[in-house]
Amino acid sequence: MAEAPVITDPFTDAANRLKTLTKVMTTRAAIAQTPKELVWTLNKAKLYHYIPVLPKQKRHPVPLLLVFALMNRPYILDLRPGHSFVEYMVNNGYDLYLLDWGAPGPEDKHLKFDDYTLDYMPRAVRKLKAISGSEEFSLLGWCIGAILATIYAALRGDEGLRNLILLTAPLDFSNKQGLTFARWTDERYFDVDKVLATFGNMPGEMIDYGAKALKPVENYIGNYVKLWDNLDDPRMVEAWHAMNTWVTDNVPLAGGAFRQLIVDLYRNDRLMRGELIIRGERVDLSRIRANLLTVIADGDHITPSCQSEPIMSKVNSTDKELFRIAGGHIGIMAGSGASKHTWPHINGWLAPRSG
Amino acid sequence: MGDAPTDNGKRFDPMEPWRGVRDVYLDAWAKTMVDMVNSDAYAQATGTMLDTYLTVSTPFREAIEKAMLKTLEQLAMPSRADIVSIAERMTNIEMRLDDMDAKLDAIQRLISASSISPRTGPRKALRQSKKTAQPKRARRRTK
Fold first, then answer.
1. B48 touches A at CB < 8 Å
2. Intervals of chain A under pLDDT 50
């Protein structure tokens, strides 16, 4: 027997929608739920080890370290149960670690890429090796985390780095016309020293504005229109709530690192030209010999593909792959299609190289 | 009645045509805005606005900082600079602790290696553990 249609009056309907809207706009979603333990800290940085779910004999012997960007929270990698890259990788037998940079305070305004790549990362890697008992490890860097991973791989790649995965990595800054950020931070218009003299660190709100202003209508209007249209769909609302929790949780970027990002990379493209100096050491990309997987999002407006492709010809890795996928900067890893496309590809590439 | 299902099972939605028009308008607007923000004129305008804000706000900010510093001194309270200095020292202490942790890990490996394989001998085990436990020593964080 066919069910009778549920008839609700328009006022109740509107009230329910407003209630849902208020909830998702004013509360934080339950995120980063995969069980983990804190195994190392230094200043604001924390190294988490995810609790394995498979017995040791079924796990990959080579552990995987995740490094996310400096100016966003890394729980985008573990957004919500059933839709988490971390959960997926743990379920696929990886011994998984996450390096959370934390939020820099005024005392950290001098922190540079030098400190992150030569103090924090080697120490975190040492701890990872001590806990896992493995001499080799894999490193996955995403966005600015991929810059750090690349610098680390070039300077300290001989310390057991076996596999390097770069997601939407902004490494090549030579195409100034194709990079909106490069235009905005051009020295004719943007005085980076004046900004840092005022704020110390680059405020999270300003970084957030910069990211959203690349597509202002989508981010400031379309995003909320999409929510309003789907307020009756609990799954859509849950996904939107989790993503909004992440998007609105911004952290500042340490002043020293921000200055390097603008001056050394956006303005002078020093990394790709082999002129970037990190604590007196030149970052020579040809010293990277780890197996390399570079993932490019074809619809990425933050890191266009021209920024990630050139690394492939600079490294000395004999085993390297460039993987292109439809989607945006965040969408390829946290969007609805990530679990069907990006994650299985990363797993398929990494699993045979983690034995 | 507006809530009655239509032939295909969906409820009739009088706002549907409006949504279509809205989406078309938003798409067009989005494209225009992307072109606008990706122009030199926009970069110059935002740069000028930011520069003006920083120039205008700096004297006020500095005056507030000076007044706050004097107030905290009068109240015998630490200033932001004092706390920053302590935080930097804490980080250096943490690094020293981390170095010690690395050495302890190395010793632990040495002990484990010795107890597991007495034939290996302590020297060989020490060489092995030294190789693995300590990353290349990086210089301390500098300003």
1. yes
2. 1
* d(C-alpha B14, C-alpha B3), whole Å: 10
Q: Which residues of chain B have a CB within 8 Å of the CB of A110?
A: 141-143
Say what the ipTM of the complex is: 0.84
In chain A, residues with a C-beta closer than 8 Å to the C-beta of B47 are 184, 188-191
Could you give the C-alpha distances from A65 to A86, A126, A132, B105, in angstroms and in order? 11, 12, 11, 20
- Taking the CA of residue A276 and the nearest CA in chain B, the distance in Å comes to 18
Catalytic residue among A49, A60, A241, A329: A329
Tens digits of residue pLDDT in B15-66: 788 888 999 999 999 999 999 999 999 999 999 999 999 999 999 999 999 9
The residues, ordered by sequence, that sit 6+ positions from A192 with a Cβ below 8 Å of its Cβ are: A185, A258, A259, A262, A263
Q: Does A178 touch chain B (CB under 8 A)?
A: no
Domains of chain A: 22-353 (3.40.50.1820)
Q: What pLDDT digit, counting tens, does each position of B115-129 carry?
A: 765 555 555 555 555
